[in-house]
């Protein structure tokens, strides 16, 4: 049995199939972990959702910012963006089933033995591991039972500090921003949610994972940050977004062998 952790799909179903062929994926035995953002910007979001959903317990996915945006659009909190190419999902007769499945998915996945973890973007510097688990479980429970209050309150960049998340709604937003949007933090550990570039171009901002360098015993997998091109300087924190949607690559990491595999991403002549 092999477990493959796969970076952001963003609607690139053909690339996913090439990747699974490349690793000789055996659906009877192997498991797939997806780092979130199954949808948006690529042309095959519906196929990605259908495939991952069809795998049942043989797959794990965490929610990314684009996945949450899809839910917000479904519940009338936001509007579909033209560049996200989500119309086929909303025209599908499976839409309600897909939405009900998607809102059951976690923000943070932790293996039973707590040796391996997966999140879409990152973890807040102020959290301990137990706080990360507790905060994400709070959001997950609310999404499962009544998603509307979460979706109505999740947009916005404040609070930047965990200690300022003094209400239930602010805790939800801080947790979602940490798990699905974070890249950089300020030196005091506050979230900075606008900068998307590479760390080498930053003198003042600190990558979120640097705050976890010496306090995380598990191996953690994340996506979201295409500018890293799959590189993290921390041996047990693995970046897996290699920019498939931007014409670069789709990448998988095999937990058992510690090997990476990549295939060419979506061919395009310009960025969306």
Structural class: alpha/beta
Strand arrangement across the biggest beta sheet = 3-2-1-11-12
How big a fraction of the residues is strand?
A: 15-25%
Shape: globular
Largest beta-sheet details: 5 strands, mixed
- Structure summary, number of beta strands: 12
Query: How many helices?
Result: 8
Strand-and-helix sequence, N→C?
EHEHEHHHEEHHHEEEEEEE
The poorly predicted ranges are none
Mean pLDDT: 96
Distance between the termini: 37 Å
Supply Rg: 17 Å
Helicity, as a percent range: 25-40%
Structure overview:
This protein is α/β, with parallel strands linked by helices and 272 residues long. Helices cover 29% and strands 16% of the residues. It has eight helices and twelve strands. The chain has helices spanning 13-22, 45-54, 65-74, 87-91, 95-102, 129-145, 147-153, 168-180, and strands at residues 3-6, 31-34, 59-61, 108-110, 116-119, 184-185, 191-192, 206-207, 219-222, 237-239, 249-254, 259-264. The strands form three sheets. Strands 3-2-1-11-12 form a five-stranded mixed beta sheet, covered by helices on one side. A four-stranded mixed beta sheet has the order 4-5-9-10, with helices on one face. Strands 7-6-8 form a three-stranded antiparallel beta sheet, with no helix packed on it. α6 (129-145) crosses α8. The longest helix is centred in the middle third of the chain and has 17 residues, at 129-145. The protein is globular, with a radius of gyration of 17 Å. The mean pLDDT is 96.
């Amino acid at each position: 049995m092999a477990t493959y952790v796969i970076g952001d799909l963003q609607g690139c179903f053909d690339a996913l199939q090439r990747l699974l062929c490349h690793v000789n994926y055996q659906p009877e035995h192997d498991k797939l972990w997806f780092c979130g953002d199954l949808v948006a910007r690529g042309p095959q979001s519906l196929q990605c959702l259908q495939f991952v959903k069809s795998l049942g317990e043989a797959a794990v996915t965490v929610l990314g910012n684009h996945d949450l945006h899809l839910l917000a659009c479904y519940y009338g909190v936001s509007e579909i963006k033209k560049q996200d190419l989500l119309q086929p999902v909303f025209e599908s007769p499976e839409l309600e089933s897909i939405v009900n499945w998607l809102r059951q998915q976690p923000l943070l996945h932790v293996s039973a033995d707590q040796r391996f973890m997966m999140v879409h973007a990152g973890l807040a510097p102020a959290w301990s591991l137990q706080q990360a688990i507790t905060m994400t479980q709070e959001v997950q429970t609310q999404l499962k039972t009544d998603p509307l209050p979460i979706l109505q309150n999740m947009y916005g960049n404040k609070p930047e500090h965990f200690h300022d998340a003094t209400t239930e709604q602010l805790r939800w937003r801080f947790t979602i921003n940490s798990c699905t949007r974070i890249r950089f933090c300020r030196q005091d550990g506050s979230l900075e949610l606008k900068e998307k570039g590479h760390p080498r171009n930053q003198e003042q901002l600190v990558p979120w994972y640097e705050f976890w360098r010496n306090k995380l015993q598990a191996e953690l997998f994340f996506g979201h940050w295409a500018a890293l091109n799959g590189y993290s300087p921390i041996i047990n924190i693995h970046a897996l977004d290699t920019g498939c949607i931007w014409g670069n690559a789709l990448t998988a990491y095999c937990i058992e062998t510690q090997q990476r595999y990549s295939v060419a991403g979506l061919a395009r002549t310009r960025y969306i």
